[in-house]
């Protein structure tokens, strides 16, 4: 890691003044890391933009002309998820941190304005903390961000007209894995006993699509069958929500019934197309209220909880798929809903 870090530093501009500020304010001068066993050391030279001394977590904001896309890239940091969320680990050597560095990259940018509520910005070449920065754009300028509250909003405006807002929340983050083996950090729910790390979860408020919880009056998710790869190597493509037989199953967002029917494994099932490649699936139903082609609105009852197909008890198996690829449903629940959910 030390050799790799030295190689990276030859290619990355990291202002000394800002590094010193962030370390002094956020990290107490420590430059050592103590990574959990699942952190990956793989590094993509192309993606690396800003780095805190000693290998601390970082991210960058990439701005193509006319829009923003925030992407996580780090020596020990998993990627962004398909719903525009990034988990940024801010816990090293057992200490919880609240700061990181970022740079802004993009085409056709002349001026940049950053505004934060619930936190402060640290700027290279200036003293103290500010809540707004407006200046000519430079791809080499690094900024520090520090959260004072549990929630903060960051607004970035390019050329006084292209604006995107990000919601930043302090969260406990756990490792999640896609069907294709890609690792991401996602918010950890109450009751989840899997390993986690203190961090910051960032979402693009204009890009993210939020779903309604799909079982009426329920906020429990089974811990025995969570989303992801199990210890025996099998992949569970959704979450299981236990409920009494006959409880209403609610459609998670507006859409059209793509498919409904019976399968020996899935039991009675419904598939909803929400547009732009987003699909939700509802398995092991008892009654189904909709048919193929039916238009549905978020929160409408489309079926009831059952135990049809290969099932050991009444529950809903709920999947979220983007362009055919299974996603961790937790990344499609907003922060308000996540606070209500419990795993057991």
Note poorly predicted spans. 1-78
Q: End-to-end distance, in Å? A: 38 Å
What is the H-and-E element order?
A: HHEEEEEEEEEEEEEEEEEEEEEEEEEEHE
The biggest beta sheet, please? 9 strands, antiparallel
Q: What's the number of helices?
A: 3
Mean pLDDT: 77
Helical fraction equals under 10%
**Count of distinct strands:** 27
How much strand? 35-45%
Q: What would you call the shape?
A: elongated
Rg from C-alpha positions? Answer: 22 Å
Structural class: mainly beta
Protein model, in words:
This protein is mainly β and 344 residues long. The chain is built from three helices and 27 strands. Strands 18, 19, 20, 21, 22, 23, 24, 25 and 26 form a nine-stranded antiparallel β-sheet that branches. The longest helix has 12 residues.
Task: Give the topology, please.
Elements: H1 2-9, H2 16-27, E1 60-63, E2 69-71, E3 85-89, E4 91-92, E5 95-96, E6 99-106, E7 111-117, E8 119-123, E9 132-136, E10 142-147, E11 151-158, E12 162-177, E13 183-187, E14 196-204, E15 220-221, E16 228-229, E17 235-236, E18 239-242, E19 248-250, E20 255-263, E21 267-275, E22 278-288, E23 295-296, E24 301-305, E25 315-322, E26 325-327, H3 335-340, E27 342-343
Parallel strand pairs: 1-6, 15-27
Antiparallel strand pairs: 1-2, 3-14, 4-5, 6-10, 7-9, 7-11, 8-10, 11-12, 12-13, 12-14, 16-17, 18-25, 19-24, 20-21, 20-23, 21-22, 22-24, 22-25, 25-26
In brief:
The chain is built from three helices and 27 strands. With 344 residues, it is mostly beta strands. Strands 18, 19, 20, 21, 22, 23, 24, 25 and 26 form a nine-stranded antiparallel beta sheet that branches. Strands 3, 7, 9, 11, 12, 13 and 14 form a seven-stranded antiparallel beta sheet that branches. Strands 2-1-6-10-8 form a five-stranded mixed beta sheet, with helices on one face.
């Amino acid at each position: 890691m030390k050799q790799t870090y030295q190689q990276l530093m030859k290619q990355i501009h990291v202002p000394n003044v800002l590094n010193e500020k962030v370390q002094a304010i956020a990290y107490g001068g420590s430059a050592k890391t103590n990574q959990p066993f699942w952190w990956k050391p793989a590094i993509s030279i192309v993606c690396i933009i800003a780095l805190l001394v000693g290998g601390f977590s970082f991210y960058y904001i990439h701005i193509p002309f006319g829009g923003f896309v925030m992407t996580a890239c780090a020596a020990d940091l998993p990627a962004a998820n398909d719903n525009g969320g990034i988990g940024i680990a801010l816990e090293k050597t057992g200490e919880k941190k609240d700061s990181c560095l970022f740079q802004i990259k993009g085409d056709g940018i002349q001026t940049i304005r950053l505004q934060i509520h619930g936190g402060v910005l640290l700027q290279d070449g200036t003293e103290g903390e500010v809540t707004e920065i407006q200046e000519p754009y430079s791809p080499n300028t690094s900024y520090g961000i520090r959260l004072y509250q549990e929630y903060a909003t960051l607004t970035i405006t390019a050329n006084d007209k292209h604006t995107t807002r990000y919601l930043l929340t302090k969260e406990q983050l756990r490792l999640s894995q896609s069907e294709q083996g890609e690792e991401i950090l996602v918010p950890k729910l109450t009751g989840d006993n899997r390993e986690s790390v203190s961090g910051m979860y960032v979402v693009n408020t204009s890009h993210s699509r939020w779903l309604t919880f799909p079982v009426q009056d329920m906020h429990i998710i089974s811990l025995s069958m969570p989303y992801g790869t199990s210890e025996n190597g099998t992949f569970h493509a959704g979450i299981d929500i236990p409920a009494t037989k006959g409880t209403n199953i609610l459609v998670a967002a507006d859409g059209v019934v793509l498919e409904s029917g019976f399968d020996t494994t899935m039991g009675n099932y419904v598939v909803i197309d929400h547009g732009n490649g987003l699909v939700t699936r509802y398995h092991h139903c008892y009654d189904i209220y909709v048919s193929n082609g039916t238009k549905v609105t978020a929160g409408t009852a489309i079926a009831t909880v059952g135990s049809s197909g290969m099932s050991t008890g009444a529950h809903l198996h709920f999947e979220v798929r983007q362009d055919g690829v299974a996603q961790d449903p937790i990344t499609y629940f907003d922060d308000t809903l996540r606070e209500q959910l419990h795993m057991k």
